[in-house]
Amino acid sequence: MRMIKETVKSALKIYANISPESCAKAHYFIKFKKKLDLSNPTNFNEKIQWLKFNELNNDIYSLCADKYKVREYVSSKGCGEILNEVYGVYDNPQSIDYDALPEKFALKCNHGAGYNIICDDKSSLDIEKTNKQLEKWLKQDFSTLFIEPQYKKIERKILCEKYIENERGGFPDDYKFYCFNGKPYAVMVCVGREKGTPKFYYFDMSWNPLPFEDTIELINKNHHPEVPEGFDKMKDYAMKLASDFKFVRVDFYLLNNEVVFGELTFTPSAGLDVTLQEADIILGSQLKL
């Protein structure tokens, strides 16, 4: 079975360059066991797939999907004060002067998602292993993995940023704003990541829980997360950064009530998110193509 899955995966990678639309339809069918309707998309995942072929080839999406160049866009919107500190930008791992870096930092490749190495203790970092991983990532064309064209034209770099931690030395809570036609509609709140057991809640812009099964179940089992002091600031920043797009997810961290920009995401889970069926319908109704 594993060999079959790997064969299918390899075939789809090759097919992605020949017929991206057919490849996207194959991914969708494998994930949901139903055909992708690009002529009349209705739910959120389908509409994200539609955006891939009708919006995301524009240069502004490549700029904003670039983990480094998006800083230009954030600054152009008058939000430069929320950018995280950058220690260096490199063409290859051999250019990284590890001796010059602080004890804690984050390395990431700018041309995709999940290309992150979080170092909380430089003395224990395996530099050779780290560099090999970075080299492997730099060789990958992330845009073809699940047909996300916004990553195709990005000039590949390695970015080193300040390590983000809360006052307890753990991972901060993060807030992901789902914005439609320039306005934030919902926020996904991730709490408890530092304990290794993150919980995900969805709220509207008045901090009312959205009727998603996972959110209601979590609230019934746990304390209702309180609205953070920086929530209104994050909403304002989200509106500024979402103004040019039919849909974008604007991600922030909140550190001691100060907002730190995370990233702009145009294809959450590559339009293949199976975790929340209610969200697929409700969020889909907000996305006007």
Helix content: 25-40%
What is the tally of beta strands?
9
Tally of helical runs: 9
Q: In percent, how much strand structure appears in the residues?
A: 15-25%
Can you summarize the main beta sheet?
Answer: 5 strands, antiparallel
Large-scale geometry: globular
Instruction: Please give the radius of gyration in angstroms.
Output: 19 Å
Descriptive tags:
34% helix, globular, five-stranded antiparallel beta sheet, four-stranded antiparallel beta sheet, D-amino Acid Aminotransferase, Chain A, domain 1, alpha+beta, 289 residues
Describe this structure in words.
This protein is α+β, with helices and mostly antiparallel strands and 289 residues long. Among the domains are: 60-162; 174-266, D-amino Acid Aminotransferase, Chain A, domain 1, CATH 3.30.470. Helices cover 34% and strands 20% of the residues. The chain contains nine helices and nine strands. A hairpin with a 7-residue loop joins strand 6 and strand 7. The protein starts with a helix and ends with a helix.
Helices and strands, with pairings:
Elements: H1 2-18, H2 20-32, H3 44-54, H4 59-65, H5 70-76, E1 86-90, E2 105-109, E3 116-119, H6 127-139, E4 158-162, E5 174-180, E6 183-191, E7 199-204, H7 213-221, H8 231-242, E8 247-255, E9 258-265, H9 277-286
Antiparallel strand pairs: 1-4, 2-3, 2-4, 5-6, 5-8, 6-7, 8-9
Helix pairs in contact: 1-2, 3-9
